[in-house]
Amino acid sequence: MNTFAGGSIESVLVEKRVFPPPVEFAKSARISSMEEYRTLWNRAKDDPQGFWNDMASHLVWRKPWDKVMEWTEPHVKWYVGGQLNASENCVDRHCVGPRRNKAALIWEGEPGDRRVLRYQDLKREVGRFANVLKAQGVTKGDVVAIYMPMVPELVIAMLACARIGAPHTVVFGGFSGEALAGRIQDCSAKVLVTADGGFRRGNIIHLKEQVDEALAHCPTIRNVVVLKRTGHQIHMEPGRDHWWHEMASIASADCPPEPLDSEHPLFILYTSGSTGTPKGILHTTGGYLVGTTLTASWVFDLKEEDTYFCTADCGWITGHSYLVYGPLSNGATVVMYEGAPDYPDKDRFWQIVQDYGVTIFYTAPTAIRAFMKWGEQYARKHDLSSLRLLGTVGEPINPEAWVWYREVIGGGRCPVVDTWWQTETGAIMIAPLPGATPTKPGTATLPLPGVVPEVVTKSGEPVEPNQGGYLVIKQPWPSMMRTIHGDDERYRRQYWSEIPGVYFTGDGARRDHDGNFWIMGRVDDVLNVAGHRLSTMEIESALVHHKAVAEAAVVGKPDELRGQAITAFVTLKSGYQPSEDLRQQLRQHVAHEIGALARPDDLRFTDALPKTRSGKIMRRLLRDVAAGVESTGDTSTLEDFSVLARLRHEEE
Ligand code: WTA
């Protein structure tokens, strides 16, 4: 079957099944009826200032704000004049009452090692590492880069940065040294926190080697703190590299959280856009924390006794918002796992769910499609009866996967929340409230209170129900990005100029007669490969850096498992001949420049690339060629292509 971002368009269009919230679940849910939801949503729409004023009371503030919001399009400030500290909200405030002995973080390493950090322990470790950072010369406002495997120290490092007002920039461990260097250079990070390596599918990921390569081009980095995780032999640069355990052993655990302005930068997270270089998305403290705290509590219905497992890596926004800030600010118990879902066998997640009695599980559609392919016997081996809520994020979920997830993993009793949002939005925007919203497989359903989305034409006119259009957001919200670090012009252009007066998401969508939003995928040149955002231009520019390449065009090809796969079309410079050896070299070259996640699955040599008269590469055509649509004759897929193609065409 042909797929669009993992699902067949036909099944999405004919999808009529509706799953109301289970009665038992709704009884004790935080928001337990559509009436309650509508009241909240209408209030937030009509009186955003009053609504968000009240919502901020879920946090501990050092100084109250003078003004809820200041909006001068496209720039917003929230809780102006207020002061708070994100690490105090995520850690210290839970250390005064009975929660102080509650598990904050339950961690399992891939080799099977386990650690539990209670809120008290987390506070001590965060305080200690904040003092280590200070000793390395980090002061308020300095950027700290973090490039680590999924170990508790990654969370500790993030919160330690937040504690002293040093914005962090976490770089996913799957990115290469080159990609790390580019990000460090862009934000002029002063200190890098890393590890000797991490474990993945039984192998060691050699992080420190990548770091050594990167730092040859990063003059702003003065010090590197290295966590010993794998214990394999690495190079330690004298005067620059310091062992985490040595620094920590001489640091005090006591570091009072610094009161910070609500608009103080909390982090910069790089993500792919439609042009070559990654964008440093800037989030600030107060609004981001209000947004993530509230949405974690609403959408995951977090209760005191929950055990919450988010499978995302902290290198992505989901890890930031729903592994660290959102759940910890709510005082939840978070399960964190270091490695691959299929190591040592394909039931690893289910073993974790059973062993820790996980109640809420949040993962990506691409993972669910892999579980389906592996077969339900892996889930059946374990007792999953502790689960009460399932979530997905990162890409459209096809109804088949949605229903499988609900039945096989959720035992037919757990609501499924399909959550739509972006690095830029900071927090979940469109998602069911599990105790209130009737769900349908394949739609993220309705906007959360405070979120006012619409599907519009290029000129900003609302489209009729069930017509495809652009997804935009019409009112500012607290957790929205503030700018692109170092490039405010690009921020204006990319998000606030395409369609007048609104935030443009880059996604195509349609809204059905019940008001549900069906996200159709990106309308720009951003790829979504296994839930990871990649830019076609970034991969193209990596390819043309190779001496043999004259021109390159990269497109996404529908992939049943990963949503999209990467297809590259390459023309060679004279003197170079296509060969299997060169094909492998070029694929490897991309992995080296960006990371293995960007390695083209399919690389085709061609004499010329199809172009318009004005010289623009005709990507639409290449996409069809990559997908082989003509040859399959599957009109449902063609239909999907035509909608997206029209949108793309309008853009051209
Ligand atoms: C896509 C991930 C459909 C979308 C949190 C968006 C989704 C991009 C969904 C952002 C969903 C995310 N249904 N599509 N539930 N969630 N997307 O910045 O195209 O890594 O624009 O943030 O992922 O990806 P990002």
TrEMBL record:
Cofactor: Mg(2+)
Swiss-Prot/TrEMBL keywords: Acetylation, ATP-binding, Ligase, Magnesium, Metal-binding, Nucleotide-binding
Domain AMP-dependent synthetase/ligase: 99-482
Residues given in the record as Mg(2+) binding sites: V544, H546, V549
Domain of life, per lineage: Bacteria
InterPro entries hit by this protein: Ac_CoA_lig, ACAS_N, AMP-bd_C, AMP-bd_C_sf, AMP-binding_CS, AMP-dep_synth/lig_dom, ANL_N_sf
Post-translational modification: Acetylated. Deacetylation by the SIR2-homolog deacetylase activates the enzyme.
Short name of any one Pfam family annotated for the protein: AMP-binding_C
PTM-bearing positions, type N6-acetyllysine: K616
Residue stretches making up the AMP-binding enzyme C-terminal domain: 538-616
Catalytic activity: acetate + ATP + CoA = acetyl-CoA + AMP + diphosphate
Annotated residues for binding of ATP: G394, E395, P396, D418, T419, W420, W421, Q422, T423, D507, R522, R533
Domain Acetyl-coenzyme A synthetase N-terminal: 37-90
Signal peptide: none
EC number: 6.2.1.1
Binding site for CoA: R200, R201, G202, N203, T318
Top EC category: ligase
Family: Belongs to the ATP-dependent AMP-binding enzyme family.
Listed name of the protein: Acetyl-coenzyme A synthetase
Organism of derivation: Isosphaera pallida (strain ATCC 43644 / DSM 9630 / IS1B)
Highest classification ranks of the organism: Bacteria, Pseudomonadati, Planctomycetota, Planctomycetia, Isosphaerales
